[in-house]
Amino acid sequence: MRDKRANESVGMSVNVIFSIFLIVVFISVAFVAINFFLKMNNSGQIGNFYEDFQEEIDNAWASSGTSKTFEVDLSNKIEYLCFMDSESSGRGIWEESYGNFSVYSFGGANFFVYPLSAAGDLKSKEVKHLNISQITHENNPYCIQNPSTIQITKDVYSQLVEIS
């Protein structure tokens, strides 16, 4: 009789331990899935920002002259938006970040989010029609805090767009 009770209690404890193990596994998988979707949302937000910003730059470039404000409100994980001229050396306040950005400047990328780790796979982008040498004349890279506004301007006689 004792052996039967001992076997039942051992069997029950194995079932309880297995159930607890399954609960821990399901909770872990749920956290991993939630984290994945949050990162995917952040990447989507950055991707949409890049598209919207390029569209505003293209519109300014196509005009004969303009000055407009572009609102920036990305995830609070992104602290700065930076423009860099990879054809020129680093200088100014952000000079120490030049090397980190230059790693991702392949393909002509001239626009970066900082910190780079907050951007996932979308760390850099080439923004076309920018007068990048003028934008980074004093500070290369030139960074703007997030959230903020970016002033987009194109002079009547200029071929490229400037930001400030």
Instruction: Report the end-to-end length measured between terminal Cα atoms.
Output: 86 Å
- Shape designation: elongated
- Number of spatially distinct domains: 1
| Helix/strand structural class | alpha+beta
Q: Give the percentage of residues in beta strands.
A: 15-25%
Number of strands: 7
Average pLDDT: 82
H/E element sequence: HEEHEEHEEE
Poorly predicted runs are: none
Specify the oligomeric state: single chain
Largest sheet geometry: 4 strands, antiparallel
- Total of helices: 3
* Estimated radius of gyration: 26 Å
Q: In which range does the helix fraction lie?
A: 40-55%
Features:
43% helix, single chain, 164 residues, four-stranded antiparallel β-sheet, elongated, alpha+beta, 3 helices
Structural overview:
This protein is of the alpha+beta class. The chain has one domain. It contains three helices and seven strands. The strands form two sheets. It has a four-stranded antiparallel beta sheet, with no helix packed on it. Strands 1-6-7 form a three-stranded antiparallel beta sheet. The radius of gyration is 26 Å and the shape is elongated.
